[in-house]
Design brief:
The chain has 279 residues and is of the alpha/beta class. 43% of the residues lie in helices and 15% in strands. Helix 1 crosses helix 6, helix 3 packs parallel to helix 4 and helix 7 packs across helix 11. The longest helix is centred in the N-terminal third of the chain and has 15 residues. The radius of gyration is 19 Å and the shape is globular. The termini are far apart. The relative contact order is 0.13.
């Protein structure tokens, strides 16, 4: 039995669909906080709350493999993930897979510390594991793409920093390959798209898709934060967005490894396809 946590999330739904194409639906468990949201998945649904260890024990009963999709509560992920790791150990699973972040153990990426701590918990558990260090999603730029298509431009502070992104479906396919394949125990995969692109490249793709001029304006971090605050973002969110652009500028999201392409057996989805689909 394969258990997927966070199965009603955007990545989780892709994983469930990919698994259903490979294994019987009755061998798949969607472990979710709100079971009513999972009624359309077509697999067994069990309640699983990262903050309720007893629910995790019930959700993991009979599990052979577990995919821990990282929680979305920044600042609370480590204790939540620890509860999942502990429950997986109690269940005696043969593989625990985890969706981490690029170079999580060494990167200064703003998102890395919680992922690094979770990876350490998994290794210390003694369970066979696979770490899927997911790079950036094309879909992370959906709002930017739509806004730029309407207004003819967007701003940021990433400079010439590149992003080797791929779609959620691409990363989900890698998780499915690990959960249904062999020989992935105790491995770490650095997953990223086949092509790294800049914000100027993104502007060019939006212009191509819309048939209208689109510009990217590079700001200082201070100017970028001011623009985000003016647009109505809370200060903490604005600071986070600016920090991510700084990480991009420093090249932390530019690594093209080819490991995602190798795992899924096909090229990754270029940002141009996502742009075309959105506009």
């Amino acid at each position: 039995m394969i258990v997927v946590t966070g199965a009603t999330g955007q990545l989780g739904r892709h994983v469930i669909e990919g698994l259903k194409a490979q294994v019987p639906a009755e061998r798949i468990v969607a472990a979710v906080r709100s079971p009513e949201k999972a009624a359309d998945l077509g697999v067994t649904v069990r309640k699983a709350d990262y903050n309720d260890p007893a629910s995790l024990d019930a959700a993991f009963a009979g599990a052979e493999k577990v995919l821990l999709i990282s929680g979305n509560e920044v600042g609370r992920r480590v204790p939540q993930h620890k509860a999942v790791v502990d429950a997986a150990k109690r269940a005696g699973v043969s593989l625990l897979a985890y969706t981490s972040a690029p170079k999580a153990d060494t990167s200064p990426l703003i998102l890395a510390p919680e992922h690094k701590a979770t990876e350490e918990l998994i290794r210390d558990s003694g369970l066979p594991y696979t770490i899927l260090r997911n790079g950036w999603y094309n879909e992370n730029y959906e709002q930017t793409i739509k806004q730029a298509a309407e207004t003819g431009g967007f701003v940021g502070s990433s400079g010439q920093g590149k992003v080797a992104s791929a779609t959620r479906a691409d990363y989900a396919a890698a998780a499915v390959a690990v959960l249904t394949g062999e020989g992935h125990e105790n491995k770490i995969y650095e997953l990223s798209g086949d092509t790294a692109w800049t914000s100027e490249d993104l502007a060019a793709e939006i212009a191509k898709a819309t048939g209208k001029p689109v510009t990217y304006t590079d700001l200082t971090p201070e100017q970028h934060k001011a623009a985000l605050l003016h647009a109505g973002l809370p200060e903490g969110t604005a600071e986070f967005v600016v920090a991510l652009d700084g990480n991009r500028k420093d090249g932390l999201l530019a690594l093209v490894t080819g490991e995602l392409r190798e795992l899924i057996g096909r090229p990754t989805t270029p940002i141009s396809e996502t742009v075309a689909a959105l506009v």
